[in-house]
Amino acid sequence: MRTPAPQTTPQRSDEDTAMPPRADCIADSAGGLTFDVTETGEPGDALLVLRRREGTEEVSLPLSPAADGRLRAALPSGVALPEGRWDAYAQVAGGEPRRLTPGVNDLRSLVDRMPSGSLGHVAVRIPYATKHGNLTVRSWLRAPHAEAGELLIEKDELTVRGRVFGTALGPDAHAELRHRHPAGSVVRAEVRAEQARFALTLPYGALAPGIWDLWLRSAGETGPRVRIARLLDDVADKKGIFAYPAVELETEHGPVQAGPYYTRDNDLSVAVTAAG
């Protein structure tokens, strides 16, 4: 029998075995974020780089020495971060940016957050782990904003309670359900207003099968059309987490199932499907 030749174990370089840098994130109630990045092991000036996934925009933040040998970067609420998903990287001495992995996210200040709305907009930034285990920041910038609160589901209707920021609720305020495909179909619902708070009831029976997006017309036909969404908490993607029951009922379009859900952008919509 022939003796097999000994196998040589391939040598791994330091670059191969180096762990990717990790960042712990702390959110503040004003909408700012602080990143504490593990030491990169490379000399030179360091940056935390945020790249918008949906475009070419980039925001660079200086990383400075902090406690425990870490590097710290701050993203104040006053720094503009357009709406979208921003992938996080660490870059040292002008080298290639390295993707950051998430550490511990302290998002307690985002729970039940109540911004003043005095700036005319609401800025939200929520760090989260992607399905590939990387760190990304989901950003929203709404001007004005209609925050969805409690959803009350009954046998043939949905009641939504919420609050507006950056706009006032006038006497002609109302809600619109707009059919997404084909666009153009609109069903109006009355709004009950008390200062900045609102409530509206949506009759399922008036809705044809399809997806209906919820909008608030805070000043009637002449005012802004504001998308109703739920942004002021610590959940970056609500679609797979916030589940609501669908009800079955008879309508002029036949038997349907109808129920609310949050989209990939945390906007509130109603799905109506033909039953059976």
Name its key features.
single chain; 276 residues; mainly beta; 10-stranded mixed sheet; 7-stranded mixed barrel; 1 helix; elongated; disordered N terminus
Question: How would you sum up this structure, described in words?
Answer:
- This protein has one helix and 20 strands.
- It is an all-beta fold.
- The model is unreliable at 1-17 (pLDDT under 50).
In brief, what are we looking at here?
With 276 residues, this protein is mainly β.
Report the average pLDDT across residues. 89
Distinct helical segment count: 1
Low-confidence stretches: 1-17
Rg, alpha carbons: 24 Å
Distance between the termini: 69 Å
> Strand pairing plus helix content: what structural class?
mainly beta
Strand content: over 45%
Bulk shape? elongated
| Number of extended strands | 20
User: What order do the helices and strands follow?
Assistant: HEEEEEEEEEEEEEEEEEEEE
Q: Main beta sheet, described?
A: 10 strands, mixed
Helix content: under 10%
Secondary structure layout plus pairing:
Layout: H1 14-17, E1 22-27, E2 33-37, E3 46-52, E4 58-65, E5 71-75, E6 84-92, E7 98-99, E8 101-106, E9 122-129, E10 135-142, E11 145-153, E12 157-165, E13 174-179, E14 186-194, E15 197-203, E16 210-217, E17 225-229, E18 247-251, E19 254-262, E20 268-274
Parallel strand pairs: 1-8, 11-17
Antiparallel strand pairs: 1-2, 2-5, 3-4, 3-6, 4-5, 6-7, 6-10, 9-10, 11-12, 12-15, 13-14, 13-16, 14-15, 16-17, 16-20, 18-19, 19-20
